[in-house]
Amino acid sequence: MQDQDVQDQDRKSALRRSARDARRAMSDHARHEADAAVNARLRELPELRTVRAVLVYAAAGGEVDVEPTAAELRTRGITTLYPRVRGEDLDLVPVTDLSSLVAGHRNILEPKGEPADPTVVDAAIVPGVAFDLRGGRLGQGGGHYDRLLPRIGDAIRVAVAYTCQVVPQVPRDEHDVAMDILVTDRSVSRPGAPSHR
After folding, report:
1. Each residue's pLDDT tens digit, 138-194
2. Are the C-beta atoms of residues 188 and 45 closer than 8 Å to each other?
3. What is the largest CA-CA distance in the chain?
4. Which residue from 19, 171, 183, 195 lies 20 to 30 Å from 138 (Cα-Cα)?
5. Phi/psi class of residue 143: alpha, beta or left (left: φ > 0; alpha: ψ in -120 to 50)?
6. H helices within the chain, ranges in order?
7. Pairing mode of beta strands 156-160, 181-183
8. How far apart are CA 92 and CA 113, in angstroms?
9. Which residues make beta-bridge pairs with 79?
10. Is 3 helix (H, G, I), strand (E, B) or coil?
11. Global pTM?
């Protein structure tokens, strides 16, 4: 079993490298166009029409920039919560003004203020390094989102990625949380209907 674990970790490391390389190879123009396409698809999701609180994130390291969607949600009176690293876990803090974000873990912008109960989240917009069409997600390797997502209950889990980050299969461990929806610059897929969680 240990040999299998080592092989899986090696596969994940290689997949992270190749997905990051593919993301880095995008031109600024292509990234800008892809961000716009992802945000347009996000805003059209029926699952985001009736939400009251949405987990979003401040993009870092070549991630899809979802701030246009977050800003539009705020204009509709929807609470946007941003993650803040606290040891092995993530706190979720309501944010109305992006100027309140400060550099935190790995120099990623994080919120200040009191954390909210994660169960208030109706939908989580989740970044990652690589994804597959069965709901598999490969994160940065710290496990922060995999520890957070079970704490948000039945909230819909929406992964966002550039098409170059979608791979045939992401290796999955027991603790890895599947995504319900994958939104890319070219498509929307729904691999994980709530009944299949």
Report:
1. 988 788 998 999 999 899 999 999 999 999 999 888 778 899 999 999 999 999 755
2. yes
3. 51
4. 195
5. left
6. 2-24, 28-44, 67-75, 144-148
7. parallel
8. 10
9. 53
10. helix
11. 0.90
Percent of the chain with pLDDT over 70: 94
Per residue in 12-36, pLDDT tens?
Answer: 899 999 999 999 999 999 999 999 9
Selection from 169, 175, 173 nearest residue 15 by Cα? 169
Angle ∠(19,21,25) on CA atoms, nearest 5: 120
Domain containing 169 — which CATH number? 3.40.50.10420
Tokens 């609470």 belong to which residue? 79
Instruction: Give the single-character DSSP code of 88.
Output: T
Q: Residue with structure tokens 């208030």?
A: 120
Structural domain including 131 reads 2-196
- Distance of alpha carbon 20 from alpha carbon 134, whole angstroms: 20
By the 8 A CB rule, do 137 and 126 touch?
yes
